[in-house]
Each structure stands twice: as structure tokens, then as C-alpha cells.
Amino acid sequence: MAYEKRTGTMSAYFVEQLVKRNEPVMQFFLLPFMAPVSYICDGREASDVMTHRIKEFDRSRLFGDLFVAYMPHSSITFPTDNDWKYNRSLISETMLPRFLEASGAKQAYGAFKELVSLWQEKARLADDRAIDVAGDTRMAAMDAIWAMTFGSSIDTCKTAAAYFSKTPGLEPPTESSTPQLANLPSYPHPPIFESLMTLLHSSRIAMSVGHRAHWLAMSVLPSLRKAKKIRDKLVRERLSQTYARFASKTNGSKVAEKGVASAIDIAVQREITVAAKEGRLALNAKATEGIHNELCLFLAAGSAITADTISWGLKRLTAHQDVQAVLRAETIEKFQSFDMNGVPPIAEAIATTDLPQLDAFIEEVLRCHPLGNSNNAGPSLLSIPFPISDQNRSPTSLKSTSSKWDHHSDLETFRPDRWLIQDSSGSKHVKFDPSAYPMQTFGEGPRSCFGKKFAYLEMRIALTLILWNFELLPIPEELVDFDIVEELTRNARHVRLRLKRIS
Ligand code: HEM
């Protein structure tokens, strides 16, 4: 705990201990009355455990335990069994390209367009000073995942933008404030946003004192009870509205294909089809519970972690002005049919255009900033691996032929171009190669991140819209830091930007 206080991260402590002992595996007791936990600090062996040895190890219960108190029947809390398969099947179509390109992209686009409007207002008020935007990316990512889940908006960024549009100007800096940092007033959030963030932050209780204490807190703390009540009421209402909409269109076992615009549509439509096949009433208690929890899981797993990755990306764009210039040049070249002074590229274009420089940048941000607390952020992913002889490797790991585990000596450096290879069609063109280097930020195997495709799409859309609308100017030296705060994710302590509107 003392170490966590000093560095902001517990996982860095595990890595430091392993490096000191020159050993890639450590076993320890994390909490009283719990089985010991193994920490594997070798990407290749961890990959083998997650992909080929899932029956032997399965997903660690520690991960699901973070969420079990406020969405107990969601797939993240299950071992890899039939319940997990059933819940997964309800939402599996949300990651198909036809849904992501037709609906997911538009919903994410709508959310990040509102973020741009909010920042236009904030940039006006900041008047060349930096602003801290960590909370803003979380608002936009929550707006995006809510829209993708329910096909409607909770307008978190829009509400904030409307608030700032009525703010005439800022007080001059006081003696105690940092003059280069604009001190913007705090602003109102919609109650549902507050509730979802309150629940998410409550996972910290499970992290520090275990999931039983988290259960208890959920039933006795008024703030947590209220947050859960608000969330559950809205989800329940949307579930019955969606069911009514589809049930009225159902003709025997044939469910209408049209009008599927969100994850809830997909889940309800699937449940109606399965129930008809099984000759039972749709949305019985078990199915309702499953869908309800799975939708809540989307909101929890699909918000803060994507937002925090985008935040790290923005910090990198500010610190690496040369990289920012390359990405902006690519955006201008690839979307030249859109008017630089007016219309930004549309959602579908951003989702489908070949953008190797942007994809390489996103991959490098993900590699350098693995946000999950179970991710190895040390040797073999971010620095040279421990020397491990073949006789100490598992038989399945020995069969791995992936060249990404070859020796790489420059893993500590932030270098997006490591993911680019020459295109065979001509020396000027480059291609993005996602298998060039080791990366496990989304985990691997059957229990890897379910929402990874939507996350990539969101990051593409968010960064394109930001690069299109703003220059991220360098910030004063005293405002620069890459400090980590380990909450549910390993997020950046500050996300300070100096935004210059491109008009
Ligand atoms: C940059 C953004 C994201 C990162 C870095 C990330 C990372 C992760 C990681 C590390 C895991 C655990 C993998 C394991 O244990 O092996 C996970 C699980 C999961 N993620 Fe993500 N995630 C992101 C965005 C999303 C989004 C947008 C969604 C929803 C649309 C999502 C839904 C899920 C779900 C449902 C699981 C649980 C999978 C299971 O238990 O089978 N994630 N994610």
C-alpha cells in the first residue's frame, strides 16, 4: 500500500519485485481467506495461458469480482461455462462489421461531435491556457456506449457545452492557481451519468477489501443504492419498450430485421427468436436478468477504459508534436473530399477508410498504456523479457510461431511507426501490421475483451474528429507529467491540453 501511495500503482510493485528477483512468475496472497494469486510477467507464457490453457486456469475470479456486486449475472463475472456462452450469444452480433459500420460508428460519432462542441466552448474560455480534460473523455465515452447500447442519448457533453456557452468569461488567475492552467468552474452532469460513474468507482471497494465488502456497501451506502436504483429503472424501462416494439412486429417465429439500431435491439431480438424456437414465452425471468446485466456490463466495461486510453493518446499527441503532424497530414490527405473549413468527415468514412498512421498510433498508445490492472506492464511487453529456457516453457507455448515474441530491444520507446510496414504496392505507401510487436492490452483468447472492435472504432472516430477540429499545442513544462493513478484502470493523473481551434 505504501508503494501504491508513492507510485500510484500496485501492479508496478509486482513488476518491480519480479525484476529484483529476476523471475517471471510470482505467487502471493492478495486478500485474507482467498486462494493465492499468480502474476505472470512473460507475454508469451501469459498468451499461452489465456489462449491454450483456459480449461486449466480459466479467467481469474479477481476480475469478475470487481463488478459482481452491481451486475451479478453478467458474463464478466462467470467462469467460461454455459451461462457465459448464453450471455455472450445475446450480444455477439454487436461486434459484427455490419452493425458497427451501420449503427455503432454513427452513435460514437454523435457522442464525440458533442465533445468537440464542448471543447470549442472551453477553448474560448481558456484563451490559450491549458485545460484538464480527463473528465470530458469519460463523459463522451459514456455518451457513446449508452448510445450504442440503447440507441438514445444521455447528452452528458451536450449539457456541459450548453452550460459553458452561457459562461461569459473566466476570473483572472489567483495567486495560488497555476497561471497557465485555466480554472474552469464545475458543471452539472445528468443523474444517469453520475450514477454510472458512482457504480464504476465503487469497484475500488472490491479491489481493496474484497467483493463481499462491496456487496455490503451496495446494500447499506445510500449513494450506491441510489445510483443502482437510477440505472436499473432506466434499463428496465428500455427493456420493456424494446420488447414491446419487437413483439408487435413479430410474425410467428419470424422477427422483423428492420429497426435494429442498438445492442438492446440485438439482445431482445435474439431472445424472441430463441424463445420461439424453444416454445416458451420470451423474456422469462432468467433471460430478462441476463440481458439486463449484460447491458449494464456494456456501460461499465465500455466507458472509462476507452476514455482513459483516448486520454493517454491526447497526452501523447501533445508531447510528440511530430507524430501529431503526421496524423493530421494523413487525415487531410485521406479526407480531402470533405471541406477543411466546414464539414468534418462522416462516421462511415472514418470507420472504413484505410488510416495506417492513425491505426499505428492507437496501437502504440494501447501498448504503452495497458489500462487493465491484470495486464503485465513490464518485461516482454514494455521492456526486454526475462531470459526463460525452453525447458521452463509449457509444451503449447513452445509451439508458438508468432514472431511478435522475437527479441525486441526498443520496447520502452513510444514509437508508432513500429507498427508500420512497407506496402508491396509502392515504396511511399505503408501498411499497418497489428502483429508486428507484442501487445496484450485487450487480453487474449476466449476471455479477451469482448468490445475491442467497438473500442478501436471509437478511438478512430474520437481522434479523427479532434485532429480535424483542434491543434493540440505544447503545454508548459511544469504542466507535463505522465503520472499514473491506479483506480479501476491505470489512468493518467492529469490530461492537460492547450486547444487551438482549426477554423
Ligand atoms: C480501449 C478500450 C478497452 C480496453 C483496453 C479493454 C480491455 C479489456 C480487458 C483487458 C479485458 C479482460 C480480458 C481478460 O481477462 O483477458 C476486457 C474484458 C471485457 N471488455 Fe473490454 N476493453 C476496452 C473497451 C471495451 C468496450 C468498448 C466494451 C464494450 C463495448 C468492452 C467490453 C468488455 C467485456 C464485456 C469484457 C468481459 C469479457 C469476458 O469476461 O468474457 N471493453 N476488456
Question: Uncertain regions: pLDDT < 50 for 5+ in a row?
Answer: 1-6, 251-256
- Describe the sheet with the most strands: 3 strands, antiparallel
Report strand %.
Answer: 5-15%
Protein structure class: mainly alpha
Q: What is the number of domains?
A: 2
* Overall radius of gyration: 23 Å
**In DSSP terms, counting alpha (H) and pi (I) runs of 4 or more, how many helices?**
20
Query: What series of H and E elements makes up the topology?
Result: HHEEHHHHHEHHHHHHHHHHHHEEHEEEE
Mean pLDDT across the residues is: 89
| N/C terminus separation | 48 Å
Bound molecules: protoporphyrin IX containing FE
Q: How many strands?
A: 9
Spatial strand order of the main sheet: 3-9-6
Keywords: Heme, Iron, Metal-binding, Monooxygenase, Oxidoreductase
Family: Belongs to the cytochrome P450 family.
Cofactor: heme
Pfam families: p450
Short description:
With 503 residues, this protein is mostly helical.
Overview of the structural elements:
- With 503 residues, this protein is mainly alpha-helical.
- The chain folds into 2 domains: 95-301, no CATH class; 304-501, Orthogonal Bundle (Cytochrome p450).
- Helix content is 52%, strand content 6%.
- The protein contains 20 helices and 9 strands.
- The protein has helices spanning 2-7, 11-21, 43-51, 54-57, 61-65, 82-91, 97-126, 134-150, 156-165, 191-209, 211-220, 222-249, 263-278, 285-301, 304-319, 321-334, 347-352, 356-368, 395-398, 452-469; strands at residues 25-28, 37-40, 131-132, 420-422, 430-432, 470-473, 484-486, 490-492, 496-501.
- The strands form 4 sheets. The chain has a 3-stranded antiparallel sheet. Strands 1-2 form a two-stranded antiparallel ribbon.
- The termini are far apart.
- The model is unreliable at 1-6 and 251-256 (pLDDT under 50).
- The structure holds protoporphyrin IX containing FE.
- Protoporphyrin IX containing FE binds at residues 50, 59, 63, 75-76, 297-298, 301-302, 305-306, 309, 371-372, 375, 441-443, 447-451, 454-455.
- Belongs to the cytochrome P450 family.
- It comes from Zasmidium cellare (Wine cellar mold).
- Its cofactor is heme.
- Keywords: Heme, Iron, Metal-binding, Monooxygenase, Oxidoreductase.
- This is Cytochrome P450.
